[in-house]
Amino acid sequence: MSATQKLQQHPVFVQAQNKAQHYVAQLDKELSKYPVLVRLEQRTQIPKSYAVLGTLVVVGILHTFNPLAAPVSNLVGWAVPAYLSFKALETPSDNDNIQWLTYWVVFGFFNFLESFAIRLVLYYLPWYYVFKTVFIIWLQMPGTRGAQATYFTILKPVLSNINNQNRAVAPTTTSADAHQE
């Protein structure tokens, strides 16, 4: 028996392989909810879970080359949401419209903030774009409602505070008050 065969029969290897197969099966079941991925699987004969995992690996590899990290991160943040926003506009339901409108507000706000401090952030956190991409994916996923959670916990309080300050009317002085001073 070769060393490779011994390794493949080792209980730890078998357990890890079974665990990986279990997670891939769960991912495949979850991805079956998306008709685009089902059609992709039918056309290419590549299991949708492998296609998604492969895409994530490619994105991860592209993130290791820093000049490509920012464009890849922004592509992840723009391409799929733009397509899904277009699709949401074509459906009669408002739930998907709320999801994507909230996503664009949060995505735009964080890109705006990023533009001010990117050099400082990259100095202290060289893998920033990896974290940003994971954050963007979390924002996009309807199951996590990341965009809505971020909006209601961070943006809405800040924007409400700014809006309330703008509504406050400054005390007015009359010309008589000015002459008395």
UniProtKB/TrEMBL annotation:
Q: What is its main location?
A: membrane
Keyword Transmembrane part of the UniProt annotation: yes
**Keyword Lyase belongs to the record:** no
Q: Where are the transmembrane segments?
A: 49-69, 101-125
Annotated membrane topology: Multi-pass membrane protein
A GO cellular component term found in this entry reads: membrane
Record localization: Membrane
Going by the UniProt record, its keywords in alphabetical order are:
Membrane, Transmembrane, Transmembrane helix
Q: Which InterPro entries match?
A: TB2_DP1_HVA22
Assigned protein family = Belongs to the DP1 family.
Q: Which PANTHER family match?
A: HVA22-LIKE PROTEINS, RECEPTOR EXPRESSION-ENHANCING PROTEIN
Name of the molecule in the record: Protein YOP1
Species per Swiss-Prot/TrEMBL record? Agaricus bisporus var. burnettii
Q: What is the lineage of its organism?
A: Eukaryota, Fungi, Dikarya, Basidiomycota, Agaricomycotina
